Amino acid sequence: MSPAQRMPSEGDGYYLGRDYVSSSRLNLMHYLWKDVLGYSIHPDIPVQDSEDFRIADVGTGTGIWLIDLSRQLHSARLDGFDISTDQFPPKQWLPENMSLHTLDILKPIPEEFKGKYDVVHARLLLPLVKNNDPTPVLKNMFSLLKPGGYLQWSDHNVTTWSIVTASPELGSSKVRAMIEETDKLAPSKLNWLSQLPYNFIKQGLQDVSHRLHPPPPDLRLFLAQVHCVFAEEINLVAMGSNGADHGVPSNRRQIQEAAKEAQEGAAIQYVFECTVGRKPVA
Ligand SMILES: C[S@@+](CC[C@H](N)C(=O)[O-])C[C@H]1O[C@@H](n2cnc3c(N)ncnc32)[C@H](O)[C@@H]1O
């Protein structure tokens, strides 16, 4: 696959791709996330399947989270928002109660969407949090909520990563090398996620809860393989823009070696986290 095919996201500073491999990775991640969390919407959040109940998914990507939710919610209105339409399915193929919109969550929210949502959901938004500060994203998500509405934000805590091996004698140097290279392109020394509950409170959200979901050992290999796809994607996107600066072409062999090591029993692992809060009623 040529680098040109893997760099559809140039222009908005997004360091991942938006082609069919990127979409497949996101859709697979959706089901792995659902398995690890055990829920789509946290059970503390009351949900009604009625026409006046509205759910927004910010940075929706392929819209997979809402499409999956539509299997249970046939009347509630489901709106996905993303800065790019590149990964949206054709609107004719969406569930009847779902629609997708272009929206930059870092810019002022159009009046038509302000204060309209009972639930605002966000997942895997690490790439759009700038300067280790989710405040601008949080403020805008807060403004989408109805009074009494709930915000749910789930993400990888990249600061918690470690390497785990299936038995002590197994090597993990290739996996480590791949992670260190990827780190140059997608910064991982970010502590905003651990601080997210405090930031929810600072923005005025109430009843804030924060849950840690360490993935179980039987998903380690699959998540490690997705991580290799992620590493390859981020390298190819960089190769299309500033790859030369990062010595990117040499990384592809390194990723394949890391994938082989993962298959033998060496994996990166990190905790999945979910923070929930409620906008005050008045
Ligand atoms: C890693 S994907 C996650 C997709 C989806 N939330 C999921 O869990 O499957 C991040 C998404 O954020 C979108 N995005 C990036 N910058 C954005 C912005 N400023 N406003 C809205 N969406 C943005 C990207 O286009 C991409 O679809």
TrEMBL record:
Leader sequence residues: none
UniProt cross-references to SUPFAM superfamilies, sorted A to Z: S-adenosyl-L-methionine-dependent methyltransferases
Protein's UniProt name: S-adenosyl-L-methionine-dependent methyltransferase
